[in-house]
Amino acid sequence: MNQFKTDLLAFIERRALSEARAAGLLGVPVFTLRKWTAGHRSPSAAAVQLLGVLGTLEAIAPDVLAALTPPDAAPTKSAGRPKKLSLKAPN
């Protein structure tokens, strides 16, 4: 297991982040995050640096990191089906 994958999974677990939140924080699609965590794809240098910065923030400024990465709230049940979007222009 490479170091990035290990560090990424540990960070996600410590911060209690969903895949979507973690991917958004790193600026990548969830699909890319899944490829990284499965070891099927290598991260860019920018992603490696960003994870390093987040780790540094966690060590020296945890309150700043907490403001950037609050834990995901429990999912709420939606009230029925979402409304269909209309592609028609308003009259």
Return Rg in Å. 17 Å
Total strands: the figure is 0
Separate helix tally: 5
What's the story with the biggest beta sheet? none
Terminal CA distance: 57 Å
Shape: globular
CATH topology heading:
434 Repressor (Amino-terminal Domain)
Order of helices and strands: HHHHH
For this structure, the quaternary state is single chain
Taken as a percent bin, the fraction of beta residues is under 5%
The CATH architecture comes to Orthogonal Bundle
**What is the CATH top level name?**
Mainly Alpha
Describe this structure in words.
The protein is an all-alpha fold. It has a single domain (3-68), classed as 434 Repressor (Amino-terminal Domain), CATH 1.10.260. It is built from five helices and no strands. It starts with a helix and ends in a 23-residue tail after the last helix.
What is the structure about, briefly put?
By secondary structure, the protein is mostly helical. The chain has helices spanning 3-15, 19-26, 30-38, 45-60, 62-68.
Q: Which descriptors would you attach to this protein?
A:
91 residues, mainly alpha, 434 Repressor (Amino-terminal Domain), 0% strand
Task: Give the arrangement of secondary structure elements.
Blueprint: H1 3-15, H2 19-26, H3 30-38, H4 45-60, H5 62-68
